[in-house]
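Before a colleague's protein record goes any further, I have to sign it off. Alongside the sequence sits a line of tokens, each denoting a local backbone shape. I want your independent view on whether this chain really folds as the tokens say. Where you disagree with what is written, explain briefly why. This is what I was given:
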Amino acid sequence: MSWLNAAIFLVLIAGHTELWVTLINRSHGLRLPARFLRHLRHFHDVWIPVFPFVLVWFVGLSGPALLRGGSWADLPAGWSAYLALCAAGAVGLVIHIARRWYQAVPAVQVSNHATTVDIVDRLGYKPLGPGPFRFLTYVPGNEIFRVEVAEKTYRLPRLPTSWDGLSILHLTDWHFIGTIDRAFFEEVTDLCEELRADLVVLTGDLLDNQRLVEWLPMTLGRLTAPLGCYFVLGNHDWDLNPDETRKWLEELGWRSAAGRCHVVEHEGHCLALAGTERPWMGQHPDFSIAPDDAFRLLLSHTPDNLPWARRQGVDLMLCGHNHGGQVRLPGIGPVYSPSLHGCVYSGGAYWRPPTLLYVSRGLSGRHPLRWGCKPELTKLVLKASQSS
């Protein structure tokens, strides 16, 4: 038995896993058909656990028999090429872990306070409906019903002094599918009302079952704010009937920001509030209709639009889509993040001058599993750089 080669096999297996997770993450950041992505995920679900057995049998015990003291020089060309990719994946995994360990708190962050609200305790029962994937709600350690309610304060250079303390309630990724019953979302809406923000925004992935658009009057339709409620939709909404969803939200008093720039006057200054649903729907908004000194706020379902936002001089960009990874492993952090950047922007705040990017973990998901990654409601409080 060659213990050195056995150790190398373990590294290659880890690299193989990282390779396929990276492929899944990047592909889900593209405008690809849902059927193709579903088939790709199914192959990924099978190939990741099967590969170690294939490697051990065809390379370790037979063929070049590396686990029996064979030579790597006898490795067939096809295996050499694939294992070289696995080695690159292992390097990528190390970089991923190191990035999480050394990620700094954004320089513009002033404070971060959060409490956890157990919705099951508030209701007195587990709010489950007849939707799919119910079995996931019984996974030990699942935090799908434990909502983190946070208030986070950031000091931004271009925020007008008269706006000091402006608050935004950021909602995203509610994923009405039916597995989590409406009572859960009604209770969360109660929490939203208690937060009392100046502005309420939604950054997409509202539905996974179009019929459940009927839940809106009892949930998001109850919310109001002095500066209004604005929304963009996401890729899960794109897969259904986005026009119907927009109509329902607008009839309930919400305003679509998709591909538009709304100029909102407040305390003697202008807020340029715009939205984008790229790459799935529509076009980017045109900020040029707003005054040059307007504070620029962009709603985007995915953080992948950050490079465009920075070129537009966006001050604050609010996103969802990545669910904070939805599952976070000890020492490794988030694994699955459907983004062209992988897990780089899985969740939280990122200062990329001139833009503060905030990626919410969202409230739910098509698959009702949250492990080490609680659902999130966040109230962002903005401070002017000149304020005391």
